[in-house]
Amino acid sequence: MNGHVKSMHFQRFMEAVTTLLSLLLVMAFDSSRTVAASRNQQCGDSVQKSLKLSRLLQKESVDLIKTYKASQGEMSELFCKVSVNNVPDPNISGLEPSEKIASIYTHLQEFFPHFKWVYEQQTDLQLPTSPLLSDLSRFTAGSRNLAYLINNFYQSLFPNVPLPEGGPTTLPPPQNVFQQKVYGCVVLKTFKELLSNVSRELRSLKSQVCRTRTHTNTLFRGWPKAGLRKSV
């Protein structure tokens, strides 16, 4: 009889342990799922802001190029068609999401010294009241903001992996007036191509790294519902 009673107590004890363990696992699963959902939401918000700004800048770049050409005088339609060295490559590289995001950020950073140089050149060529100068300043500020958002997007996905530093930017040697006009137009045109590539990559990255995972945790497969029954 004593052995039977001990067996009953042991069985009830094990059922209680199983119940407690099941509840703890359920709580842990719900907590991890909540954290994952929060991170996915943060990721989605971050990439959406970056995508929205990249599209806006792409549209603004069209108007900026028109304003630039209109302010350069004769032969302005030919300026953007001339080949120029030392202008950054607009193509995004990398296979993994981390590499692609890092490439986007690095390419954006590479253009900023060129924007500064174009602005300084145009300051010498234009009147102080020229709308081109204010448009260039505003566009550069928006582009820097995009780089900031891309940095945040990267850090939200890879908080322990620093963004790689880009290499030194090579600016063109001293130029005559015609070369300056050509250089500025090519810089803006190439950056417009970069923005198009950035928008395309961000759309792809959004579906790759920010989608919500809804599969069930495999730890709960096969767990008997009897583990949650009331002991008798």
From TrEMBL:
Gene3D superfamilies, per database record: 1.20.1250.10
Record localization: Cytoplasm
GO BP, one annotated term: negative regulation of neuron apoptotic process
Leader peptide range in chain numbering: 1-28
Keyword Signal: yes
Keywords, ordered alphabetically: Cytoplasm, Developmental protein, Differentiation, Growth factor, Neurogenesis, Signal
Keyword Signal: yes
An annotated Gene Ontology molecular function: growth factor activity
GO cellular component: cytoplasm
Family: Belongs to the CNTF family.
Xref: PANTHER family: CILIARY NEUROTROPHIC FACTOR
Described function: CNTF is a survival factor for various neuronal cell types. Seems to prevent the degeneration of motor axons after axotomy.
Protein name listed in UniProt: Ciliary neurotrophic factor
Organism: Notothenia coriiceps (black rockcod)
